[in-house]
Every structure is written in C-alpha cells, then in structure tokens.
C-alpha cells in the first residue's frame, strides 16, 4: 500500500502529521485547527484514510488530503 499526504510525501505507521485546514469533527463540537500536530498515526486498509487520536477523541479517521507530514 502506498499512503501519501497532500504533498505526495509517503506516510508510514507511527508518523506525525499536521492538519492543513480547519476540520469540523462530526458528532462533537470539536474543530481541529490548522497546524494541529497529530502524533502516532495508524494506517488503514484505505490509502486515503488514516486513524489517530486527537485530544479526547479516540479512533478518529482523517483523509490524507487534509494532512502533511510533520
């Protein structure tokens, strides 16, 4: 599997990424602000999605088009 961020940089298990756009999280009142650092990502079966933990949210799934490698 070839998972890449918004700039085309390859991502691997456990990498740190940065959010490049403000994202509203469905089901909560939380908004991930641009520049938020997410540590220890987990790759999924889909090349366009990753799993991570942010603040109080466990198992959050994000699209790689909104992330860049930190």
TrEMBL record:
Pfam families: YjdM. Gene3D superfamilies: SH3 Domains (2.30.30.40). Residues 3-70 form the Protein YjdM C-terminal domain. This is PhnA protein.
């Amino acid at each position: 599997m070839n998972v890449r961020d918004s700039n085309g940089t390859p991502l691997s298990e456990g990498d740190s990424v940065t959010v490049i756009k403000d994202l509203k999280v469905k089901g909560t009142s939380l908004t991930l602000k641009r520049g938020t650092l997410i540590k220890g990502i987990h790759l999924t079966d889909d090349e366009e999605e990753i799993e991570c933990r942010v603040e109080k949210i466990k198992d959050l799934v994000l699209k790689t088009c909104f992330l860049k490698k930190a």
